[in-house]
Specification:
Length: 989
């Protein structure tokens, strides 16, 4: 640490408790007694509670301490402070930050290295420096400054180092060291080095103030080694006024000032010589004391009053210097001898270090608090810029001979030394290297220690950050949906159920994000640790020491930087892990929900279809039972997932809202994670998705789209928005009259869900489709769209994935039990299995048949016939028939793809019947694109996953469930249904 120019360096040292205090401090005790609710009741007698003292200083790190920290044990807090008016702070719990804080285990060497040692090089370069110890009586000032014979303090350690350095530079410099030692006792200056028998002047020695402050008449000694200085100090201390007081048996009743004057001149003689002079002052102030506390009487009381007076004057100077910045305002130095003597140390041309000594225990509560406030003020002092004391001396010609003689002596000395010079230099180098290595090691140790102390807390904070951001995101999403729900007016029971579920979900997230949540508390603790860690790394990086050469200094900085980087890495990993964990959780939940949704949708569709088409009296209760079971299972799953049941909601009013909100959200997300081409069309897809979502409700939809593929199976598809009229169609297949519409395209196969959605439509509306023939022409029309819709399409493989709303109901007719496996629609490779040729075949076939106006009726009859003709369920048969001109297999030759799905023929047949609606009314043969639902395609679109063909229409729902055969293809998908359960009740695997 360097006493930087412009400010005073303030270091605080906490002394260990003395034996009297130690006996009254609580033993470290681990009280495991459970006191239950009576936390404030007096606990059983333990060693901890018989103590009358407590520690009032808590060291946070090497720069921060807390005075009077809050007691965490409420019973102790109560015992110590009793009842306090509400709002009163029970503990001061005040944090102070200094340049350095030493705990009670700090050694003299540690204190010296961080305070006085950094000043030494400056002193040798000609800068004045002052080290003074301040504190209440008995807090360890004398111990720190003088120390004992066996454990010498700053004076000895400084002088030993100083003489070592002087020795190192003796070849180039002539260095003179002169020492004076005085005390200020009752505002009188006394010379501690003068013979006691010599009478001292009345009123003490005088201070002379010029550009420097000097005390006239002092004995000046010239020691040649640290040992000599030590003896001088010990001698002076024996003459110093000391008296036992209640607070300290060896209380110093005076301020002692040791001044070391160092003058250096270069050994190389020349006509002019540049001398540097510097004064190092080491001051042991008398301890401040409160008269009431010390119970001093008589002389001791007078001494105490004078001590306090001079310390008060010192405090006033410090305050004035703080406020004035050391320049403008009057600083009352003249109010006491002490402040006059310290004038240039405090606000002048001097580097100053203040060592503040404090006691750790509560019996010094007020003294310690005052001292810390005092020291805190001192940190704000701004001193003048420190300058070097250099004196240029021109030699007189008459002194040349003297200079020549000195040079001759020097030459002789140098010659004599030359032999052993290398050895000596090597020794010096070795010592310096060892010192630098020790310094680096010390810094490393500090860094490692702090790293280990704070890592757990900081990483925990990073984890909390991740968790909090996840919770906030969840909450945002939930709130957004809740707002949507609330804005939708009077709520139907299903929306009520959803709202309640969402609120149940929001609860824990809200708790998590609250400012007083455990997670936030952990985050706060972590940021404290982080601040401490950063402060330590900063302190280590900025640590200046004479012992550190440039390389070692860089090493230390590097060490600190590495540790910081390491910590950042750990933090990032912690946050990443927590986010990863959250993503895993959510993925699992999502998979469950998707599974539930898909299977529910399929079952609902089947139920609706079955009810509508069969009309058998037995089916209704069975279907109702299945739906009931499904509901129970769903509820069970919801309860497991979010801890909330929807069992109490009854949609007796039948007011089911549509599913727009989910479709929008889900679809947008899917698009955003899709290929770039898909993302570009997000607006379009969102619109289509809203159409899809409408199909979830009971409203039939005209889901007429076509896929425009430039190459079959390629994932790069272009989406086009369906026509507005298609989207807004309130009636299914109403677009029979929409001849003016240009084109409609299907969404990409691998792309995304509205293909699925299309499959739901017939499920919901199957009743009317299968039972009401009059709806068919309308439907077929809408499937096809207008002539112009198809003409502006250039690609002819777009039908590859074409599908139509009735695909579900018609596609499944008469194909119960079919087990042909095919790739899932969700499988990206799905499209690749399709061939362009096949699509073209479909187109051609459809084209050919498109001119027949009776096709809708025909297709219905075909479908009905097929329902009664199991043979037609066979793909091969149908295919053969198609080749032979069978209406069900209208495509011919290579252009007709082989049967891909079991329901293909009847679909193809129906599709064919739809073609006239799609084709131009003038029978224009060159139809480029026809929206056709290839049977296979339709089948695929029917299934949300790899759904087996479910019989509809005249077959019952139970038959559909039976169709959920244990085909490995059926159960291979994650969301497929358990066969056994499907027959009786659906279960989630
Ligand atoms: N860091 C320390 N380690 C061990 N003992 C200490 C320490 N600091 C102080 N002491 C002991 O505490 C006692 C009082 O210390 P000291 O005389 O240095 O206090 P002081 O501040 O100089 O008091 P006063 O102002 O009255 O002179 C001494 O016995 C001293 O040895």
């Amino acid at each position: 640490m360097v006493a930087s120019a412009g400010s005073i360096t303030v270091a605080v040292r906490v002394r260990p408790p003395n034996s009297w205090e130690a006996a009254r401090l609580p033993e470290p005790c681990y009280d495991t007694t459970i006191r239950g609710e009576g936390a404030l009741s007096t606990p059983r007698t333990t060693t901890a509670n018989t103590s009358s003292l407590r520690e009032v200083v808590q060291i946070i790190d090497d720069r921060i301490l807390t005075f009077d920290p809050a007691e965490t044990d409420p019973s102790k807090a109560f015992l110590e402070r009793g009842f306090l008016p509400p709002g009163t702070k029970r503990y001061k719990d005040k944090r102070f930050m200094f340049d350095r804080v030493f705990n009670d285990e700090a050694q003299q060497q540690d204190v010296y290295q961080a305070t006085a040692q950094p000043l030494l090089q400056g002193v040798l370069d000609g800068y004045n420096a002052t080290v003074f110890a301040y504190g209440a009586t008995g807090c360890g000032k004398t111990h720190t400054i003088s120390g004992t014979e066996t454990d010498p303090g700053i004076i000895y350690l400084t002088m030993a180092d100083l003489f070592q350095r002087i020795d190192d530079r003796r070849d180039e410099w002539t260095v003179e060291v002169m020492v004076t030692f005085l005390e200020i006792y009752n505002e009188e200056i006394r010379d501690l080095l003068a013979d006691p028998s010599t009478p001292s002047p009345r009123g003490g020695l005088c201070i002379r103030e010029d550009k420097t402050v000097k005390v006239s008449g002092l004995v000046e000694l010239r020691p040649n080694s640290a040992e000599e200085v030590k003896e001088i100090v010990l001698l002076g201390n024996t003459r110093r006024t000391q008296s036992p007081t209640l607070a300290n048996a060896t209380s110093s009743r005076s301020h002692a000032v040791l001044q070391v004057h160092i003058t250096q001149s270069p050994r190389t003689a020349s006509l002019s010589e540049e001398r540097t002079m510097a004064t190092l002052s080491i001051i042991d102030l008398a301890g401040s004391e409160r008269a009431a506390a010390t119970t001093n009487m008589g002389q001791r009381m007078v001494e105490g009053a004078n001590i306090n007076k001079s310390l008060l004057a010192l405090g006033n100077c410090i305050n004035a210097l703080c406020e004035s910045g050391g320049a403008v305002r009057h600083v009352p130095y003249r109010n006491s001898k002490l402040t006059r003597l310290l004038k240039f140390s405090l606000g002048g041309n001097c580097k100053t270090v203040m060592i503040v000594c404090i006691a750790p225990t509560s019996n010094h509560f007020d003294d310690t608090h005052n001292t810390l406030v005092y020291a805190d003020r001192a940190t704000k002092i701004k001193t003048k810029v420190v300058t070097r004391n250099i004196l240029n001396v021109d030699r007189h010609v008459g002194r040349y001979v003297e200079a020549i003689n000195r040079l001759n002596v020097e030459v002789e000395e140098l010659k004599a030394k030359l032999a052993g010079k290398n050895q000596a230099e090597n020794d010096i180098q070795r010592r310096k290297k060892a010192e630098a290595a020790a310094e680096v090691e010390r810094s490393r140790k500090d860094v490692r220690l702090k790293f280990e102390q704070t890592t757990a807390s900081i990483v925990d904070g990073a984890i909390c950050t991740g968790k909090l951001s996840v919770a906030k995101s969840k909450l945002d999403a939930i709130n957004a949906r809740l707002r949507q729900i609330n804005a939708s007016g009077p709520l139907s029971p299903d929306l009520e159920a959803e709202k309640a579920l969402l609120q149940a979900l929001a609860g824990p997230e809200e708790q998590t994000t609250q400012s007083d949540s455990p997670l936030t508390a952990r985050l706060k603790r972590s940021s404290n640790s982080s601040a401490m860690f950063d402060a330590t790394m900063r302190a280590v990086s900025e640590r200046r020491s004479e012992r550190l050469d440039d390389v070692s200094g860089e090493n230390v900085k590097l060490e600190a930087r590495c540790s910081k980087a390491e910590m950042e890495k750990l933090k990032a990993e912690g946050e990443r892990d927590s986010l990863k964990e959250a993503v895993q959780d959510m993925s699992q939940t999502l998979v469950h929900l998707v599974g539930m949704l898909s299977r529910c949708t399929v079952l609902l569709g089947d139920a609706a279809t079955s009810l509508g088409s069969s009309g058998g009296p037995d089916d209704v209760p069975r279907v109702a039972a299945i739906l009931g079971t499904m509901r129970e299972k769903n509820d069970e799953a919801f309860t497991k997932l979010v801890g909330h049941s929807t069992a109490s909601y009854n949609n007796s009013a039948g007011l089911t809202d549509d599913f727009t909100g989910y479709a929008d959200a889900g679809y947008t997300r899917r698009i955003s994670s899709g290929p770039a081409a898909l993302q570009q069309t997000s607006t379009t897809t969102a619109v289509v998705s809203s159409r899809r979502s409408s199909s979830y409700g009971s409203r039939p939809s005209t889901a007429n789209t076509s896929v425009s593929n430039t190459s079959a199976g390629s994932p790069r598809r272009t989406y086009r928005a369906p026509r507005k009229s298609l989207r807004s169609s309130a009636q299914p297949y109403r677009r029979v009259a929409d001849k003016e519409k240009k084109s409609v395209q299907w969404r990409d196969e691998a792309g995304q869900g509205d293909l699925n959605a299309i499959s739901f439509i017939p499920a919901d509306t199957s009743s009317s489709w299968s039972m009401d023939d009059s709806s068919l022409p309308q439907r077929s029309t809408s499937l096809g769209g207008s002539e112009s819709e198809w003409e502006d399409e250039k690609t002819d493989d777009s039908l590859n994935s074409a599908s139509a709303p009735p695909a579900r109901s018609y596609g499944s007719l008469g194909v119960a039990g079919a087990k042909r496996s095919r790739p899932s629609r969700l499988d990206p490779g799905f499209l690749k299995s399709k061939t362009k040729r096949t699509a073209l075949g479909s187109l051609a076939e459809d084209d050919e048949s498109s001119s027949s106006p009776e096709k809708p009726q025909r297709i219905l009859s075909d479908v009905m016939n097929q329902l009664d003709n199991p043979e037609l369920a066979s793909p091969s048969k149908r295919h053969t028939q198609a080749k032979n001109g069978n209406p069900l297999g209208r495509s011919t030759g290579g252009r007709r793809r082989s049967a891909i799905g079991t329901s293909r023929n009847e679909k193809g047949r129906r599709r064919s019947s739809l073609i006239p609606q799609l084709s131009p009314s003038n029978g224009e043969p060159k139809l480029k694109r026809v929206l056709l639902a290839s049977p296979a395609k339709r089948t695929k679109r029917v299934s949300l996953t790899k759904m087996p063909k479910l019989s509809t229409g005249r077959t019952s729902l139970m038959a559909n469930l039976a169709a959920l055969a244990p085909d490995p293809n059926n159960i291979s998908a994650d969301l497929s249904m358990n066969k056994g359960a499907a027959q009786s009740k659906p279960t989630w695997r």
